[in-house]
Amino acid sequence: MSVLGIDQITYGTDDLLLSRRFFQDWGLTLANESADELVFECLNGCRVVVAHMDKAGLPPGIEEGPTLREVVWGVESEADLTAYADAIRNDPGFVDGLVDGARRIGCTDPNGLAVRLQLTRKRELTDLSSAVMNTWTSKTRVNQPAPIYERATPIEVGHVVFFVADVQAVEAFYASRFGFVSSDRYPGRGAFMRCAPEGGHHDLFLLQLPTGKRGINHVAFTVRDIHEVFGGGLHFSRCGWETQLGPGRHPVSSAYFWYFKNPAGGLIEYYADEDQLTGDWQPREFEPGPTVFAEWAVDGGLDGHTRRQRGVEAAGKFLTEKK
Fold it and tell me: In this protein, which residues make up the domain named VOC (predicted)?
């Protein structure tokens, strides 16, 4: 029994019209729309809900302003739901009821976030092609160019990252209630956690600041490969959205990334090629620092039109052309 991953996230925002354009430019499909709520879907059915901050029944925020209000994790069976319900029954904010005709349980984690579980609604994608990488020791892409993406179509919400007031308490909660496993740590400062012993490097990252700030840091969307990170980022840049940092590469998880500012709260990330771990993995400890966060990164992003770093004038048809 284990949690399978993120099934749905819910933002609370004060500008639905702006969020509508933002997430459609990001590459999500608008599945449903009402006066106070937008429902988007990723390729595999993972949902992103954006609700007006005044919508009745919306869980309270852990910080002021637009932010992530709820994370819904998917499980495999009704028996799993019942077992998890027994584990959290005595925790604050326990709920067990129907949402859109399906059972959903949950509680409030030690950081104040609404945490929910449901039978997964995500679809298995059997015909999704990704890039094949040629290396010095393995040349498997023959007579075939690597893909170029005009924009990204995210597969799912791969992980969420929160600022927490007490990283040890929140890490212990997810481990004891839901069986999450720690992948790596910044001792006393941060914890990377995955849903099960076998899986991607992290589904949840908890970061404790000296100020004790609580809130959303970012939500990360999985795309096929490094080429889609670049193609998605360039398209999003052409749409006028502002880069926070990227493209770049994380040493801790090996993933390629590109972060943008999100009007619905925090940052938003395209990422691909993270490490895959098993139960044999031993968590490492890192001292936070610039070279630990990013092996390399472009500050301010790339311009979608010139393909150069923002603010650098294009000289001609080729990037190497000089005036």
Answer: 156-273
